[in-house]
Structures are given as C-alpha cells and as structure tokens.
C-alpha cells in the first residue's frame, strides 16, 4: 500500500493520480512480458530454434523484474534505451516499441495466424480500415514496400476515393514508417548522438529491402513449399476465412546465416478468391538487423511466366534466372 503524504485535497488528488499512473505503467510491463512469453511458446510449438525461443523467455523475465516502466524508457531514451536493458536486443526492443506505438505486436499476430495485409496497411495514420480494404482488393498487394511502389508508380491513383492529397499523405506516412524502422534496426550501433535525435534516412526512391538477395528469398520459398507439401510443418488455425477453426496453414521458421525467416501461405480474401492459397507465400524477416516482409508468387505473365518471383523485385528475379538457368525456377 502506498502512503499519501499530503493533507491538502488538491495535493492528495495529484498524489493519487500519480500512484494510479505508476501502477498502470507497471502493469504494462507485465502485459508485454506475457506477450513475449506467448511468442516464445508459439515459436517453440512451431519448431523455431531453441536459442530464439530462449531469447524471448529471458526478455520476459527482464520486464517482469524491471522497476522502471518501459514506456518511460522509450520516451526518454528511445529504442537505444530499450536495447541497453539486460537480454533486450534489437529485435525484441523493436517489438516492445511496436506494442507501445500500436497496442499490439505484429509478430505475435502472425504466429497466431491473425495478421492480414489490410491490418498492416491500417497501422498507417493516413489509412483507415475501409481504405486499407479497398487498396488490398484493388491492387492485390501485401506489404508496405509494395504499397510504396504503388504510390510511386501511379497505381494507387486507381483506388476509388483516393486523390493526390491523400496519396501524398500515404507516401509521407510510409516514408516515416520505413525511416523509423531502419533507424531502429541500427540503434545499437549508434552513439550518444542517437540520444540527441539522430536518425538514419531512407531514400524516397528506394526503401531498403534489397539487403537480402532474391536468390535467398526464393530459396526460403522453395524450402517452405517443399516441406509443406511433405506434411512436415506445424500447422496453425488462422483467424480469418476459417470458420471451422481448422489448423490448415503450415508455418516455417528457418535461418540463413544470422537472418531469421518465417514463411506461410497467404490467407487473404484475394488469395481465396483466386484459389492461390497454395501458391502465394508470405515471407517475414524478424531478427536483430531487420524486420521485412515479401510476397513470392508464380508469375502469370511475360518473360517470367511460370517462374517463382518476389513481387516488386521482378527485374532482379529476371537477372537471377538468367544467371542461374539450372535452378528451380518454376512452381
């Protein structure tokens, strides 16, 4: 029990309010710790590496024993301050920041089978749930980088109800989100200048998802489809388009060097409508260096028809197949 020191009504009210706020923030630490425990449990159930599972368990213990609310640390020191906590690295610091900003953790959403492209787009301040649905239905895109490309090349203008002013706002929101994401990913390498507000920038013409080669992404795609077809992957019950709550969606956790990937078939309305739920594969990267998302599909048109391609990186795929003609290029 907390003792109230003052005898003045106004001061007592302030003290009570302060105690209430502190209690709420302390509970927030515990709430985030519980979500990290759930991530660890789901990763273990889905066959992720023991080291990755243990990282989330240790981070949960840190938050449970932390005397200072993580929200206060984030407000004063940013992601850099979170990374300085014991057992909290880049990746988990980014998840904590996402929770404090969005009220949820996208990684947990997808491990539960709940994440959709529409929900992802709706996290942008310039896009609500209705507009997110129209964008997804009209353009058949799945990722923020694909949305960025659509805003740059004019396709976004085809979405009913979108004018130039709104498109400009979407581009600004995307630039800010991508800049924020890649600045956070390099936080541990920052010095005290980061505390003074320094941040890296992302080119408006080319947000940086190109660190990973299309060869690697296509290799993860191939591994996922092969193991899924052999029935060797854990299956989850996605929340959407699954009235019987059947565990049908295979999920893969794998690694390439120090890069962690999660792969699963697309469970969107459009994928069900076009009967491509066993063709479109969503790849996620979640590790200390980056958080990205790609869609791999079988191309239906042009010189890459019949080949597996990474949407938005078609030219790189073409160059890849030119230099690797003996590779597994088809679905």
Automatic annotation (TrEMBL):
- Residues in domain Crossover junction endonuclease MUS81-like HHH? 28-104
For bias kind Low complexity, which ranges apply? 185-196
Region entry Disordered: which residue ranges? 181-206
Q: Which GO terms describe its molecular function?
A: DNA binding; DNA-directed DNA polymerase activity
**GO-annotated biological processes:** DNA repair
Q: Taxonomically, which superkingdom? A: Bacteria
Q: Which SUPFAM superfamilies match?
A: DNA polymerase beta, N-terminal domain-like, RuvA domain 2-like
InterPro entries, per the entry:
DNA_pol_lamdba_lyase_dom_sf, DNA_pol_X, HHH_MUS81, RuvA_2-like
Q: What is this protein called?
A: DNA polymerase family X protein
Q: What is the lineage of its organism?
A: Bacteria, Pseudomonadati, Planctomycetota, Planctomycetia, Pirellulales
């Amino acid at each position: 029990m907390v003792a109230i020191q003052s005898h003045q009504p106004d001061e007592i009210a302030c003290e009570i309010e302060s105690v209430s706020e502190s209690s709420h923030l302390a509970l927030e630490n515990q709430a985030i710790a519980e979500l990290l425990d759930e991530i660890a449990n789901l990763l273990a159930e889905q066959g992720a590496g023991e080291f990755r599972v243990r990282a989330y368990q240790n981070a949960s213990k840190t938050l449970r024993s932390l005397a200072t609310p993580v929200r206060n640390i984030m407000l004063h020191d940013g992601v850099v301050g979170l990374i300085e906590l014991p057992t909290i690295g880049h990746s988990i610091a980014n998840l904590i920041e996402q929770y404090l900003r969005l009220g949820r953790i996208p990684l947990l959403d997808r491990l539960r089978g709940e994440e959709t492209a529409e929900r992802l787009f709706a996290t942008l301040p310039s896009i609500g749930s209705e507009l997110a649905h129209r964008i997804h239905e009209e353009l058949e895109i799945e990722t923020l980088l694909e949305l960025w490309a659509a805003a740059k090349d004019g396709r976004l203008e085809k979405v009913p109800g979108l004018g130039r002013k709104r498109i400009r706002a979407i581009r600004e929101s995307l630039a800010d989100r991508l800049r924020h994401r890649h600045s956070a990913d390099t936080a541990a390498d920052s010095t005290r200048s980061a505390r003074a507000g320094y941040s890296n920038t992302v080119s408006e013409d080319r947000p940086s998802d190109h660190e990973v080669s299309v060869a690697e992404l296509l290799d993860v795609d191939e591994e996922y489809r092969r193991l899924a077809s052999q029935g060797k992957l854990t299956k989850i019950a996605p929340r959407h388009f699954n009235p019987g709550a059947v565990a049908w969606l295979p999920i893969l956790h794998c690694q390439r060097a120090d890069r962690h990937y999660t792969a699963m078939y697309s469970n969107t309305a459009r994928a069900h409508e076009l009967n491509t739920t066993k063709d479109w594969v969503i790849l996620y990267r979640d590790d200390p260096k980056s958080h990205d998302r790609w869609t791999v599909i079988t191309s239906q048109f042009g010189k890459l028809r019949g080949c597996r391609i990474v949407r938005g990186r078609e030219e790189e795929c073409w160059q890849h197949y030119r230099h690797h003609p003996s590779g597994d290029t088809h679905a």
